[in-house]
UniProtKB/TrEMBL annotation, chain A:
GO terms for cellular component: THO complex part of transcription export complex. One of its GO terms (biological process) is mRNA processing. This is THO complex 7. Residues 209-231 are annotated as: Disordered. Component of the THO subcomplex of the TREX complex which is thought to couple mRNA transcription, processing and nuclear export, and which specifically associates with spliced mRNA and not with unspliced pre-mRNA. Required for efficient export of polyadenylated RNA. Plays a key structural role in the oligomerization of the THO-DDX39B complex. It comes from the Eukaryota. Keywords: Coiled coil, Nucleus. It is found in: Nucleus. Gene3D superfamilies: P-loop containing nucleotide triphosphate hydrolases. Belongs to the THOC7 family. It comes from Gasterosteus aculeatus aculeatus (three-spined stickleback). Its main location: nucleus. Residues 221-231 have a biased composition (Polar residues).
UniProtKB/TrEMBL annotation, chain B:
Transmembrane segments: none annotated. It comes from Gasterosteus aculeatus aculeatus (three-spined stickleback). It comes from the Eukaryota. Keywords: Repeat, WD repeat. One of its GO terms (biological process) is mRNA export from nucleus. It holds the Pfam family WD40. The lineage of its organism: Eukaryota, Metazoa, Chordata, Craniata, Vertebrata. The keyword Transmembrane does not apply. Belongs to the WD repeat THOC6 family. WD repeats lie at residues 148-189. InterPro entries: THOC6, WD40/YVTN_repeat-like_dom_sf, WD40_repeat_CS, WD40_repeat_dom_sf, WD40_rpt. This is THO complex 6.
Length: 231, 323
């Protein structure tokens, strides 16, 4: 208690019940009326008794009896009044306690909601990071697809491989046939050349033989005539 | 930088820092400006955060190409390559680590370096030179190890096919050549303007952008932007974009292209143009995606204006940096 300064106490009390109309006043009133009740005399003062006598119809009752009755009634009413004030104070205290409990529970509730929201925030952050990674992946995939498309466009411009192969095969066949024909023609040419060579060489030889024969005939004639002349 | 200079400024190149929080941009006056993305995208960004945190003069001529690796920024301008450390640049120290110049045959005119790219297989830098050659610089030893000759006019752009270890180069002569990085021989040569479906004789035959993701290649310039399948060396899709495209890139399942015209074109691999997002410069030269940081995944484009548009969502322009 010594740690809390007077200022704090005053500030708190002003905050709670600054205007004096409320529990504080009630407690003060109760205390005052209790002390008054404890210290009140056995006999009441003349003025109050007379005033209240005039209003009541207890004229015929003897004065002393009336006085005692009045005092007991008076004290009883004070007592009732004090009990009432006490009950009011208790009631307000109970109310404050309940409000305090309610505040505590509200705080708990808010704490729960707070942690919940924090968790949501972190999970949202994680999801954002995930999505960013996804985007990068998707962009890479898109880039690859576009590259494929670009290459495919170029490839489409070139003729089909089967077609080209078929054309190549046909050309090969043609080439083979033509070379075959060429070979044949070449062989024939060789053969004819050889035959002509044979023919020509035979003719040459015959010519040679005929010339030789002519020559030998001439020689014989020349030899024969001198021999004739010699005889 | 007076208003007239700002009016005539063109942004030719951009590069993001390895941490992804800074953007370096090179313009035609030889300056490089470093912008802070983290400041500009933070909730309490002001108009001042769209200005550069550091501007310095890097080369005498225009800065045509910027490239970043784990800790360095490489810039190429008129004939030389400079290397800057990102850590030093963030601390506003603008002294270059080294500056190298490829061996040019003629010493009279210095040809410019149009484009650079890394070849991570052998840790080398591939440079597209204005002397019709592709130079290869070995980053470990710091020497120029080979020269790929074959183009008959200057080389605009280079790209590297990681899986096969080939270098692709596109040039003013309309040929896209594929070189083997180890032997330095030209493996293939595609003359894009000879294909009827791609050719646009009214624009010419030059190729200004080549990019690849190992199986497919995008090239454009004078001929229409076209997607090629590298295994079969055949054009698969032609994109019906008006104007010449100066830089393209593959992004997820889309193709982003910038060039003539104040718009970034989003196209699908099949050949259709999905969207054209307007931006502030009248024509665009460079397009970069920030893949180094997950917080600041933005697309930035720069072109013939002193503004660099930043897109946090690919569908609309968020704000612009200005020099």
């Amino acid at each position: 208690m010594g740690a809390v300064t007077d200022d704090e106490v005053i500030r708190k009390r002003l905050l709670i019940d600054g205007d004096g109309a409320g529990d504080d006043r009630r407690i003060n009133v109760l205390l005052k009326s209790f002390t008054k009740w404890c210290n009140s005399p056995g006999t009441p003062d003349e003025g109050s008794v007379k005033g209240s006598l005039q209003t009541t119809c207890l004229h015929f009752v003897p004065k002393n009896l009336i006085q005692v009755l009045f005092v007991t009634v008076f004290r009883f009413t004070q007592y009732q009044r004090m009990m009432g004030i006490l009950a009011q104070c208790e009631f307000s205290m109970g109310k404050t306690l309940m409000v305090y409990d309610m505040n505590l529970r509200e705080m708990e509730n808010y704490e729960k909601i707070y942690t919940n929201i924090e968790q949501n925030i972190t999970s949202a952050h994680d999801k954002i990071a995930e999505c960013k990674k996804e985007i990068q992946r998707a962009k890479r995939i898109r880039k690859n697809r576009q590259e494929y498309d670009a290459l495919a466009k170029v490839i489409q411009q070139h003729p089909d491989r089967h077609e080209t192969l078929k054309q190549l095969e046909a050309l090969d066949k043609e080439l083979q046939q033509l070379s075959h024909i060429k070979e044949n023609v070449d062989a024939k040419l060789e053969l004819r050349k050889k035959q002509f060579h044979v023919l020509l060489s035979t003719i040459q030889e015959l010519q040679q033989t005929l010339e030789n024969d002519e020559k030998s005939d001439n020689d014989e004639n020349i030899q024969g005539s001198p021999a004739q002349n010699g005889e | 930088m007076g208003p007239v200079e700002l009016l005539h400024m063109s942004v030719f190149s951009q590069s993001f820092s390895p941490c992804g929080r800074f953007l370096a941009a090179g313009n035609n006056y030889g300056e490089i400006a470093v912008f802070s993305l983290s400041a500009a995208l933070s909730p309490d960004a002001t108009a001042q955060s769209q200005k550069p945190v550091l501007t310095f003069s890097a080369h005498e001529g225009p800065v045509f190409s910027l490239l970043s690796n784990d800790c360095h920024l490489l810039s190429a301008g008129s004939g030389e390559v400079s290397c800057w450390s990102w850590a030093e640049l963030i601390k506003k120290n603008t002294k270059p680590l080294w500056t190298k110049r490829p061996n040019y045959k003629s010493s009279l005119e210095i040809p410019e370096i149009n484009s650079m790219t890394f070849n991570s297989r052998d840790n080398s830098l591939v440079l597209a030179g204005g002397d019709n050659n592709v130079h290869i610089l070995d980053l470990e030893r710091g020497l120029f190890k080979s020269v790929l000759q074959g183009h008959s006019d200057y080389v605009h752009c280079v790209s590297v096919r990681g899986r096969e270890g080939e270098i692709l180069s596109g040039g003013e002569d309309g040929a896209v050549r594929m070189w083997d990085s180890r032997t330095g021989q030209c493996v293939h040569c595609i003359e894009v303007h000879k294909y009827e479906s791609c050719a646009r004789p009214q624009f010419g035959k030059w190729i200004s952008c080549v990019t690849t993701d190992s199986d497919w290649m995008l090239c454009g310039g004078g001929p229409s932007l076209s997607l090629w399948h590298l295994r079969s060396l055949s054009p698969t899709s032609i994109f019906p974009l008006i104007g010449c495209q100066r830089q393209t890139s593959f992004y997820q399942d889309m193709i982003l292209a910038v060039g003539d015209g104040p718009a970034v074109s989003h196209c699908l691999l099949g050949g259709e143009v999905k969207a054209q997002i307007p931006c502030s410069p009248q024509s665009l030269n460079t397009l970069q995606l920030n893949t180094n940081s997950t917080d600041y995944r933005v697309l930035t484009v720069g072109g013939s204006s002193d503004h660099i548009d930043v897109f946090t969502n690919l569908s609309y322009r968020t704000f612009s940096f200005s020099f």
